[in-house]
């Protein structure tokens, strides 16, 4: 088995940290960062049975004010059709208009790819109880296959994301 999984989210939410943890979860790792117009390959996770290419889709965060940007955005969004799962990363309980914009583009194509919401930096959230109503609200508002509170830096729930990525292939 071999497939691609996208890590998507605005700058600073912890995508690179998550990727490092994902790649560090198990033994054999090859990592490279070639730039192409559509994807940036972030890293490749390999085990005995499966190989997952983690990609970044930078075009999704571009402002759509100009026609050329809209075009690039559409290219980025449609290129996500090739992935078996999208890990949409947000920063804790700070949901922004930017996040919503990216999310709308993710739902641009209606296909059978999984979308997982990773609510990162939960180690920063003192009152963990406050997370539950928040998770509930997001679950009602958007159609995610799974909503997972994670800590990319501490590794909380990162194995769970890797398992989901592997089963999505
Ligand atoms: P990217 O721009 O989305 O790739 O984000 P980075 O992975 O570069 O992380 C941005 C900042 O958030 C860095 O200072 C990270 O150390 C920090 N960060 C990432 N993940 C976590 C986390 O789980 N908990 C905390 N407390 N900080 C994190
Ligand atoms: Mg990064």
Automatic annotation (TrEMBL):
Residues 1-169 form the Era-type G domain. Residues 9-16 are annotated as: G1. Its main location: cytoplasm. It is found in: Cytoplasm; Cell membrane. GO terms for molecular function: GTP binding; GTPase activity; ribosomal small subunit binding; small ribosomal subunit rRNA binding. Keywords: Cell membrane, Cytoplasm, GTP-binding, Membrane, Nucleotide-binding, Ribosome biogenesis, RNA-binding, rRNA-binding. One of its GO terms (biological process) is ribosomal small subunit assembly. Residues 35-39 are annotated as: G2. Residues 56-59 are annotated as: G3. Residues 120-123 are annotated as: G4. Residues 150-152 are annotated as: G5. GO terms for cellular component: cytosol; plasma membrane. GTP binds at residues 9-16, 56-60, 120-123. It comes from the Bacteria. It is a peripheral membrane protein. Transmembrane segments: none annotated. An essential GTPase that binds both GDP and GTP, with rapid nucleotide exchange. Plays a role in 16S rRNA processing and 30S ribosomal subunit biogenesis and possibly also in cell cycle regulation and energy metabolism. Monomer. Belongs to the TRAFAC class TrmE-Era-EngA-EngB-Septin-like GTPase superfamily. Era GTPase family. This is GTPase Era.
């Amino acid at each position: 088995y071999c497939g691609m999984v996208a890590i998507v989210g605005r700058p600073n939410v912890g995508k690179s940290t998550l990727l490092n943890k994902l790649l560090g979860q198990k033994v054999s790792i090859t990592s490279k960062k070639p730039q192409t117009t559509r994807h940036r390959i972030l890293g490749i996770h390999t085990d005995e049975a499966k190989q997952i290419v983690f990609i970044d889709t930078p075009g999704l965060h571009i402002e759509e004010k100009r026609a050329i940007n809209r075009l690039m955005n559409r290219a980025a969004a449609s290129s996500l059709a090739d992935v078996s799962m999208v890990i949409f990363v947000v920063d804790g309980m700070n949901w922004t208009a930017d996040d919503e914009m990216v999310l709308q583009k993710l739902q641009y194509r209606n296909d059978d790819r999984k979308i997982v919401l990773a609510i990162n930096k939960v180690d920063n959230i003192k009152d963990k109880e406050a997370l539950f109503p928040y998770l509930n609200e997001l679950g009602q508002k958007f159609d995610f296959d799974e909503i997972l509170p994670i800590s990319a830096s501490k590794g909380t729930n990162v194995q769970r994301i890797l398992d989901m990525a592997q089963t999505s292939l």
